[in-house]
Amino acid sequence: MIKLFRKIRQRLVSENTPDAPKGSLGKYLLYAVGEVVLVVIGILIALGINNYNENQKSIAQEQVILKQLATEYKANLLQLENKIQMRRKLIAESLNVLEITSNDTLISEDSLSMIFATFFMDPTFDPIENDVINSGNIKLIQNDSLKQALSHWTSDIKAYTESEDIQHNHYISEIIPFMKEVGIMRNANHVFWRAKELRMGFLDKGKNDKILTIGKSPKEIDVQSILKDPRLEGLVTFIFTFSQVCNLEGQTLKEKMQKIIKILEDEIE
């Protein structure tokens, strides 16, 4: 294109052949202006090409980030749904225990062991965290709604895990010590490792490992004494309450994640 402008300029100069010195000056000025115009045009074209290349590079980087985020958020969603399902089991078992204790229902040692094996579940959400925000790469994302949702992700997780931490601390400080004290710990542990549906929180971790159990305790378990222990009702009520709280918050977080995934899929080419 620059060659084309140069030919046009040279043609104009050649056509301008005045006989007077004044004409020579005009010819020189025309030539000088033409050179300046050509340089400016060349610079503009070079800048345009460079900007285009940089823009294409940014688009390619954005696509890589979007695909990575989609993969991670789908994995996080799967884990969250798994934790929600675990808490549903805790809620159902809590209601079962409260009904048993309220009606003085007689149950077997195996049934009680299954109840406490369920209480062995300690669901905590541990999402994959992408460094797209901390690294500054979020500026490469063009969708404003997506950028806003991603920027709120850390605070959303923090709000959700605060309730989880309360339940986890109660599990460590109250539930486990109670099971040890009343002598149901070993039996519950035995049932837990034998019941695949109770180990759902482990996902695929260790799936190739052989699952071992320590067997049931040879000691007799006083089932009725455990059921009549006044602490049991309080422990189970806590499990019910915070499992429900975490699931309500989890459903809200799940909807936000589904929205993010939907935007990501729409943006991926």
Features:
269 residues; mainly alpha; rod-shaped
Description:
This protein has a domain at 83-267. The protein is built from eight helices and no strands. By secondary structure, it is mostly helical. The model has no long low-confidence stretch (mean pLDDT 85). It is rod-shaped and about 115 Å long. The chain is 74% helix and 0% strand. The chain has helices spanning 2-15, 21-103, 109-118, 144-151, 153-182, 185-194, 223-228, 230-267. Helix 2 (21-103) packs antiparallel against helix 8, helix 3 (109-118) crosses helix 6 and helix 5 runs antiparallel to helix 8. Pfam families: DUF6090 (PF19578). Keywords: Membrane, Transmembrane, Transmembrane helix.
Per-chain topology:
Blueprint: H1 2-15, H2 21-103, H3 109-118, H4 144-151, H5 153-182, H6 185-194, H7 223-228, H8 230-267
Helix pairs in contact: 1-2, 2-8, 3-6, 4-8, 5-8
Please provide a brief summary of the model.
Keywords: Membrane, Transmembrane, Transmembrane helix. By secondary structure, the protein is an all-alpha fold.
Element pattern in H and E: HHHHHHHH
Q: How many strands, which pairing sense, and closed or not: the largest β-sheet?
A: none
Q: What is the average per-residue confidence, as pLDDT, rounded to a whole number?
A: 85
Q: What is the overall number of helices?
A: 8
Task: Briefly note the structural class of the backbone.
Answer: mainly alpha
- Anisotropy-based shape: rod-shaped
Strand tally: 0
Low-pLDDT windows of residues? none
Radius of gyration: 35 Å
Beta-strand content bin: under 5%
End-to-end gap? 33 Å
The helicity comes to over 70%
Transmembrane segments: 28-49
Keywords: Membrane, Transmembrane, Transmembrane helix
